[in-house]
C-alpha cells in the first residue's frame, strides 16, 4: 500500500496508512521502513522522514542514501553532509547522490569538489552518473580546464564511448566555447541518441553557426532518431541567431505538419525574436497575439529586446507594460526600457524609469567579465582598478587603443547610454569589463597559444564587438567571448556571428 501511494504521488493516503500502522502496533521490517522513509522524502516531508530514520531499529545503505538524497535535493547540504559523514557508506551510489544533489541545487563548485574527493581520497570508481554530473557542473561554470581533465579520465575507461557521458561532454565543450571539440566527441560516439543530436544542434546555434546547426539537423533526419520539441528549439534558435527568416518559417510549419509537434512557448519566442531582430516588429507582435496560450514573459522579453535594437519606443512600451503586469519586479525590463529611452535620447524618461527602479528597490546588474588563467578566475567590472596587475592591464589598454585607431577605429559613442560629454563616452568605452579581461589575457598568455576565452554576464556592446574584431587581427589571436545570449568567435578581424547578434 505504501509503494502504491509513492507511485501515485498520494502522500496524504500514505501518511494515513502510517498512522494505522502505529495504532495497531504492527512492527515494520527494514524493507517496509525504507519504503516509509521514501514516502516522506518523495513528499518533501523531511522532518517526518528524519523522525522515521532516527526511530528505525536497523538501517542499511538504502536508508542512508534515501535520506541523504532528500536533503541534497532540497538544498539542505548541512544535513546531507552531516548524515553522509556519520554513515559508513563511501560507495558509488552515496557519492553520486551528493554530486547530483549539488548540481541540482546549482552549487557547481561543491559538486566538482566532491567529485575530486571521490577520486583522490576515497578510491570510489566513477560511474556514468558521476562523470555526467561533474561535466554538467563544468558546463554551468564554463570551466573548460576541469572539463578537459574529466574527459581525459573517461578516456582511460570505457566511458569515453558511453552515450550519456558523451552527451555531457558535447554540452560541456559547447558551453565552454570549444565547439570543435564538441563535434569531435559527437563524431566519436558509438551511438548518437536524440540528446546527442540536440546538444550538437544547440551548440552550433549558441556559437552563431546556424548553417552548421541546420546541416546537423539534416543529418539527423537521415537516421532513425526522430526530432522532438528540444530539437526544434535548437533549429529555430539557429535560424533566429542567423536571421534566416524563410528557413525559420519553413521549419516552424514543418514541425507542426510533418512531425506532429505542437509549438510551445520556446518555439514561439524563437520566432518572435527572429521576426523582431530583422525589424518585423508588427509581425512579431501579431504572432504573440495569435499564440494559442497566454503569452509568456519570454515572448514579450524577446520582442522588447528587438524594440531596443530598432528604437521602436511605442511597441517597446507595450511589451514592458505586459511584462511588468506579470512581474512588477522584473529588473531586466526596467533596464531595457531605460536603454531604449537612452538610445532615443529621451533622458527625462530614463530618469523616470530609474526613479521607479529605486522606489521598487531594484538595482541594475553591473557588467561583469571574467577570464581563467592557470586555474584561477579573474573578475573585472567596468573601470575596475582593484586587480593587482592593474598598471599592466591599463598599459595594455592604452597600447590597444593606439593600435586600433591606426586601423581606422572610430568609437561608437551611441553605445554609451549615459548623458555625458563625448570625450567621457570614449574613455568609458575603453574601460568596459570585457576589454579589461582581454588586456589581462593578452598579458598573461603567450602569443600563439590557445584562444583567449572571456565570459560576460550581459550582452556585448556594439563598440566592444568592433574593437574585439580589430584586436584579433592586430595581435593575431583568436578571442572567444560568451555573453548572455551566445558566443562570439573573433578571428583575423571577423566574428562568427557575421555582425548579426
Task: Map the helices and strands.
Blueprint: H1 2-8, H2 11-24, H3 30-42, H4 46-55, H5 61-73, H6 77-86, H7 92-104, H8 108-120, H9 128-141, H10 144-155, H11 163-175, H12 179-188, H13 194-206, H14 210-220, H15 229-242, H16 245-257, H17 265-277, H18 281-289, H19 297-310, H20 313-326, H21 331-343, H22 347-360, E1 368-373, E2 376-381, H23 390-406, H24 422-429, H25 433-444, E3 452-456, H26 462-474, E4 479-482, E5 487-491, E6 494-495
Parallel strand pairs: 3-4
Antiparallel strand pairs: 1-2, 1-3, 4-5, 5-6
Helix pairs in contact: 1-2, 1-3, 2-3, 3-4, 3-5, 4-5, 5-6, 5-7, 7-8, 7-9, 8-9, 9-10, 9-11, 10-11, 11-12, 11-13, 12-13, 13-14, 13-15, 14-15, 15-16, 15-17, 16-17, 17-18, 17-19, 18-19, 19-20, 19-21, 20-21, 21-22, 23-25
